[in-house]
Specification:
Helix content is 90%, strand content 0%. It starts with a helix and ends with a helix. By secondary structure, it is mainly alpha-helical.
Length: 177
């Protein structure tokens, strides 16, 4: 691989990692926005229970706990799957390194020949470094995906909560009037 091709592929990998990070940042911002709405609307309901304790039977108070547990479970499963992708990338790197070592050993097999050994060692080092560079890029990409995988269930639950609670708001005020 030529230097310009290496630089181009490294640049493409950097752009892919940056896009993944930017996408996760956008999702985080949306989650934070929906979370503040959800917290405010639920606190409003909770404050109303001071005047009427029967409102503590509101299904919203039970839903708060169960959906957090569900989101945590989904996030844990998603991150575990992402860790599997990281392990796959590491195993791919190790197998590629093993094949490069095998090629070096086969090239060095036979009668002692320092010139052949030098060429074989040079090819091994170059191959090994190329493999390591690609593996690092793959590992970096998979690692940047972990944040998005873990955030996705919380993003979904928080946005659904905010939409549902905002739709219920006019009905709550009409019922109390």
């Amino acid at each position: 691989m030529t230097r310009s091709a290496k630089a181009s592929s490294a640049s493409a990998r950097s752009v892919e990692v940056a896009a993944e990070i930017a996408g996760t940042a956008v999702v985080l911002g949306e989650t934070l926005w929906a979370a503040q709405q959800t917290i405010a609307l639920r606190l409003m309901r909770l404050a109303e229970t001071a005047m009427d304790p029967d409102q503590l039977r509101d299904p919203e108070f039970i839903r708060m706990v169960s959906e957090k547990l569900r989101a945590a479970l989904e996030a844990n499963l998603a991150v575990a799957g992402g860790m599997g992708a990281i392990a796959d990338a590491a195993m791919e790197w190790a197998s590629q390194q093993g094949m490069a070592m095998e090629q070096w050993a086969l090239a060095c097999w036979g009668l002692p020949d320092p010139l052949r050994w030098g060429h074989a060692s040079s090819r091994y080092v170059e191959t090994s470094l190329n493999i390591a560079e690609m593996a690092c890029a793959h590992l970096a990409l998979e690692a940047t995906r972990l944040g998005g995988l873990g955030l996705k269930p919380y993003h979904k639950a928080t946005n659904e909560n905010a939409r549902r609670l905002l739709r219920q708001l006019p009905a709550l005020h009409a019922r109390r009037a």
